[in-house]
Structures are given as C-alpha cells and as structure tokens.
Design brief:
This protein is an all-beta fold and 474 residues long. Helices cover 0% and strands 45% of the residues.
Length: 474
Amino acid sequence: MKRRNALKSFSLVALPGLLAACGPGDSATPSPPPPAPSPADRWTAGSLLNAGSFGAGTPSLTLQADGTDRMLALTGPGSESLAFAINSATGSALTLQRPTSYANIFAAVPNMSGGMLWIWQVDGGAGVQQLLYALSDGTSGQIGVTRTLPVLPAPSLQAKVMAQDANGNALVRWASGPLDSAGQPTQGGLLRFISATQAWSALSLPNALASPNLLANSGAVFDSNGRAWLIQPTPGTAAGEWTLVLYSLVSGASGWTVGPQVPASTPRASAFQMVIDGKNRLVVAHSPSNGSTLSVSRFDPNGTGWSDLPAPTLSNQGYRLSVDAPGNLWALGTTSAARYDNASSSWTGPKNFDFTPADAQQGNGEWPLALAADSLGNTWAVGVRRKAAGQDLPVLWINLFSATTRQWSEAGSLAVQGGDNSAFVQPSQGLGPTFQVALGLDKQNRPVAAVTEILRASASSYQARTWIARGQSA
C-alpha cells in the first residue's frame, strides 16, 4: 500500500477513508486521490515469442483467434514464415510445423478451425511449378499430409487465399504465365477449399469474359452463413477508372450470382476494402479515381440492397476498415481515426490519435497501431511508444474505448521482457527499428497482442523479435 503523509503530532499514517486523531492545534493534511486506473493494469507484461534473422522478403505479422482459447500467430516473410499457437489464458506458445525450408510459400493463413493452412510452390520440372498445400494442427503442432492443388503445372504459378470462413473453408485465387506485355499473368482461376474434408474444387470465374488478371485486384469475404462475397473491379473507358461489380457464391453452389455494383456517381479507383458486419451486411470503403475522399457503402442482401453511409472526411490513403459485432465501423487513416456509430447513424471524427501517448509516433512517421472490439463494442487499442536514444526494449501503450461512454481512457504503458539485443538500441540519430502490431480477442473476449520489432540489417536481410502480451476482458 502506498504510504501517506504522517500527522504532525503523532507517529501515525493517515489511511484513506479513516478519520485520524489529531493533537491540539493540528490539522490533517488531505491525502491525494489515488491515481486513475489505467487500461494497461489489466494486462500482463509482454513476453518474448521469437527472435531471429530473416532473409529477403516482406516482413509480416498475423494474429487470429482459432475459435478456442488459442490465438494463432504468424511472423516472418514468405518462405521463412514461423507459426505459433498461443494459449490466451496462460501465454504458453506451441511452434507449429511448417513446410520445408526450401519451399516458396505463398500463403500461410490461420483459421477458426484451429489450424494453419499452408500453400506453397515447388519446382515441377521443365520450367514449370506445382502448388502444394497442408494444414498444421494448432493442438499438436504437427503438419498434415502434403497434397497437390488441382491446378496444372505451369510457369510463374502463384496462389493467394482471398478469404476464409469460421470453419476454415477458403476461397483461393491462382495465376500463372505466360505473362502478357505488362507482366501480368494470362491465366488464372478460383478454387474452393472445404476444411472438413480437405477437398478442393475449381470454381468458374465471376465474369467469364473478363481477363483472369482482374482477380489480382479483387477482394472477397465470407458471411456467417458461409456465402462468399466478391468484388471485382472492371475497367472503364479511361485508364484508372473502374466500376466495382459485386458477386456472391452460396455455400455448395458452383456458379457466381451477379449483384448490383457498388453505388457511385463517378468512376472508382481499383483499391477498396470490404468487411462483413454483425448483421451479415457487406460494408465497402472506396474512393473516386480522381479524388482523395473516402466513401462507405453498405449492402443488405435481405433488405434494401445498397445504401450510402455518411462519408467520413478521412483521406483514402493508408486507411484500414474494421467492424464490431454491434455494427459500428472504425476507419483508420495514417494519423487519424473515425468511428461510425450504428445506432445514431453518424460518424465521430476523424480525429488524430490523441488517445495514444504523444510520443507514440515512430521516427519514420508511422503509427504502429491495432484495434480489436469485443461483442459489446468495447475496443482495445495497442501500439508502441517511440524509443528514446539508447533504449533497447520497447514499451507498449494500451488504451480502451468504452462502448457505454463512447470515450477513450487515458493510455497506459506496458513493458516487454526478454530478447535484449544491443543491435536494437535506438540510435541518437536516424530512424532506428520499425514495428508491426497485431491484436485479437479470444472467445472469452480476452485481448492478445503481438508486436514485432524489425531492424533492417541489409538490403537482403533483417533481424526481428516478437513479443506476446495478454489482457483481461473489458
């Protein structure tokens, strides 16, 4: 217990809430109020998950609940991806087996059925490649039997998981050469993966007359009924102008149904984001081809179809879109955030990230930040404070948005432990390391954060260390 000011005439300590005796002529000195609770008080210090060196490739960090009390984490670039199953109650971590080190991995995706789906490429001889896949079990850590995807060997063969549902079923697009004059693949298609049977089937293209390389700009999500929604940009009459066409695929069907395109009075840019809200409505953030404003549209398949939500005055550059269970939206830009309240049908913001400490922005101008909302709409935010010169281990910041008060708390700090390395000490000049942050909640609404610090050693290699921090439900 924190000691308080002693009374002048007696060797007593004034305890909060108790009336202390005073000598003649003496008066009690009021005790200062206790400090306000910090959101970080509900978290345990971050513990080291992994530290190592990686070769060339784009650093990545993924964290996703697997439908139990585990979180599946993935860190590292492509062929060097490392996967872990983390117990969100105890923090213990199990390393998942992965394909052989020489594999050219295109996809490593955690799923809600408790495993990690791997898709990778191997040399098929005669200048062509083959695509293989396997599942790592989140309980045993063992990787399953390697099987071949139903795609003929071809040059420049690639694959990407576009979407997964809660049961681990996946929609995968593939592309292959020969390449056209613009360097784009001339062949491609879609595959559906059924997790329960590990069966693959080929799907028809949403638009049989369109070039397969349009799939590279497409996005897809599954709703809670297992129906896939796909938006494929279709080029307009001028370069850089697109319409966003909606397609749907009911679970078990083999063909796509064409839906109404995303509403817009002017041509769209090809970049967009899409999510499913708690009522199985599709929400799409998009922007005009010649502008910088952000538009948000929502599609209700069982009601009014498309409707335009009030547009946040948020730049269309670098934003991220997420939705909570009650249907509230978060649109995060590079330095600001806006929240759409589903009950009042209005946006709050955009506002600068003033719910973070003033020094949370990194030296390279980035805000390493992740949000995750529980079933009531309470939203956790986790980021990294700016490191001071000479500092090795980073300090995280934690904050909580209350769905009841619709206010952010005062951000608190959280230490990490393990992985000390003088190479990561912040220099007195220069940018120093950068960070990636991922955040998820388990089925008990307990938040788990993964934070990776990255130090570029050369053009073809870098060092990284990752910590896991755990919190209590809001």
